[in-house]
Amino acid sequence: MKKIKKFLLGRATIVALAILLQLCWILSFLYGFRMRYSFLNTIIDIIAIFVVLVIVNKRSNPSYKIAWTVLILAIPIVGLLIYFIFGRSELTRRTRKRMEAVNSEMEQEFLDNKELQEALRKKDLSAYSQSKYIRDWAKFPIYHNTTTQYYVSGEEMFPNILQALEEAEHFIFMEYFIVEDGYMFGKILEILKRKAAQGVDVRFIYDDFGCVTTLPAKYYQKMEEYGIQCVRFNPLYPVMSVIMNNRDHRKILVVDGKVGFTGGINLADEYINKVKRFGYWKDTGIRLEGEGVWSFTIMFLEMWCYINRNKELDLKQFQPHKYHPEQFETDGYVQPYADSPLDHETVGENIYMNIINRAKKYVYIFTPYLIPDNEMMIALQNAAKSGIDIRIIMPGIPDKKIVYWMSQSYYEPLIECGVKIYQYNPGFLHAKCFVCDDEIATVGSINMDYRSLYLHFECGVWMYQTKAVFQVKEDILQTIKKSEEINMKFCHKRPAAIRTLQSVMRLFAPLL
Prior knowledge:
8-stranded mixed β-sheet; 20 helices; about 45% helix; single chain; globular; alpha/beta
């Protein structure tokens, strides 16, 4: 009874109901107006056709265009209203301008590392091409003098996070999509409060939408009382807004500019299996130490300055060598990167595509959701047809049934081309990793679905010949042993009702 009451009175329910009421009121008003003035039907139809032409001519994914075209032409009033509120994947012009100004300021702080790029070009032209794409189009440089450590689970990474926080002497930056007021975050918060009291510069960003069911409203005020500078990305209000469609899905932790963490692991108890949700929660993360952490520092400060509407004046105080004048160890080539809905460059997807298209032997993939667009499907199918060993590991127990069914609808055309698909038997797999040919890997926050690839702020680490590359491969191979390989019989035995529902859902997959 308490859980039901908490749900009904929760912030998520109140906001959802408020938006639904607004949507219903606007629709009823428009329909009533249209019934009274019949000429409006013609005007609305003309507007619908005009909007569809605008959508078709946009530089966006074809599947996205088709889904909106079908919805708008089939139900013009509903389709147009939903599109103008939620359909524009980019931020508003004013918001874009503000963030672009911050990004432009921060990008000047990156070193070009031309000598390192040239060394990689001579070593491996394929890897150089992938790295060059990240440098030229995502604007993040490649680094040496950085070591990597991969974690096969949240509970393996958690002690190292606590240790890094305990060792902080100058500053701590944290940016997370989901933060839950439980055991995991309680342990972290205990250290953050103590460090803030000692004079350490502690800054924290959380996504308000991601935390709508896990944190109280205006939780940042409570953090401020502890001496922790805290802001929320995209505050959730009970008002319809296009900006609600964009979320900060990144996971970033930086300590003193020299140690950084990222991956799929949020700050909630299921990520370290303190509580059981959907069986065993399988997730992964990565730790960097060295000059490569600078890119994560810049990512955090860009978001911090955007939210606070200010600019950092002295970025040099956060550089890796500011408090670590000695040379860092070197562990292959490391290139952290971020993806943003601000531009028309789908960095996360293109990095994945570059890995697939340039593979010589194999590509192994961890992903919790498999909702690829047409380009990704073709890349996976063509690679498998060419003899590349493509293996995709998915959850055995879903966290979202509808998304799970939609992901399964892509199994059959992939398996037909030779892609091997596995479902992780012990529970839910939330990891987002690629590994290729014993040389290249990426670990980050980016799912293989439209929302991650087109609408969210995301991040990851591209690596070449680092220790973590082999750790990712070994983890995937061990995980496959605990997984069930999916065959055509599995695809065909799905009930007819489910298969019909999947067909409809695939049409509108870009809108979910």
